Amino acid sequence: SGIQPYYQSWHYQALKPDYSPGFEVGSAYLFPDNVHQASLNWVHLNTRDTSFKQAARTTQLSTIEFVAPPFEQRPPVFGIKRADSTVTFNFDSIELNAARMFEPHPQLRARLYGGINVLRIKQRLTTIFSDLVGVPATAYSYALPPDPAFSFQLQNTSDYIGVGPDLGFNVAYTITHGMGILGEFLGTLTAGNMSIQDKFTSTSTRLATLGIGTSHQEITVPDTTQVVPGFDGKLGLFYNYVGINVPQLTLELGYRFASYIHGISSVNPSTLVQPGTIVATPEFSTGTMAIVSSEIKNQAFNFNGPYIKLNVALA
User: Which of 105, 213, 239, 269 has the greatest number of beta carbons closer than 10 A?
Assistant: First the structure.
């Protein structure tokens, strides 16, 4: 938005997924010495969210609004008025651990554990730019007519799977009548394969006139080895119930937070071939991606939210 072309004001549109249900299932075996334990757990989360931005459809350069990808900020995109985005996350963590139990006080129990963690993180972000209402000529570009057929889609996929050691610590303090507070922290360090892909699909009246119904372009990166440090923490309350002829039940309620550094990667165009000022010069409005260079960006994968957990002792 702003007076063009010298007083632009850019605003990033963020996708913030709402809470989605995930689950964790597992089992543990307590050895006869009541001190050592082995456990296997699987954490799964699949979440999705959508968002959009509709700019005002005016074509007056003094009050113009438009939407565009970060790498395309030039007069040819002044006429694009809408962006629709969808993001999906798939997260899986499988933990195989051995633990040592401690009970320094009748009301205080602790568990130190470590083992192997298998981690999978996948993100897919799709954005479609559309609603090309046209734009008058400027000193830097020629006029563009309205094009209801215009559509430009970017789809970035990041897929990581790795394995490595983990180390965790759990502390539970019973306050009264089986109720208490607990805290847990798990640190992981995995290394594995990172696959990145960026796809571009576009349509427009101009492309159709040239006999190109849909233009397909793609940026791929050779698979790389990625190191992903991470942590998973919990803070909550618990209630432990023990009855006659009833298995021991422990109910937990609390908050969980996790972060995996460099768990997501994306490859993005950072510079494009600059268009000329004549109609015959290909440019963004046709759906053509003329790339000079690109860059790879690493980001953390985070999730957090309330959790509920039920432990059942079978013996």
Answer: 269
Higher pLDDT, 23 or 211: 23
Burial class (CB in 10 A: 0-12, 13-18, 19+), 67: buried
Backbone angles phi, psi at 152, to 5 degrees: -135, 120
Residue 208: φ, ψ to 5°? -65, -40
Listed residue (298, 48, 88, 43) closest to 194, CA to CA: 298
Cα distance between residue 91 and residue 205, in whole Å: 40
- Written as one letter, the residue type at 108 is L
Residues 6+ apart with CB under 8 A from 182: 170, 171, 172, 173, 234, 235, 236, 237, 238, 252, 254
What is the distance between the alpha carbons of residues 107 and 60, in angstroms, rounded to a whole number? Answer: 72
pLDDT at 207: 83
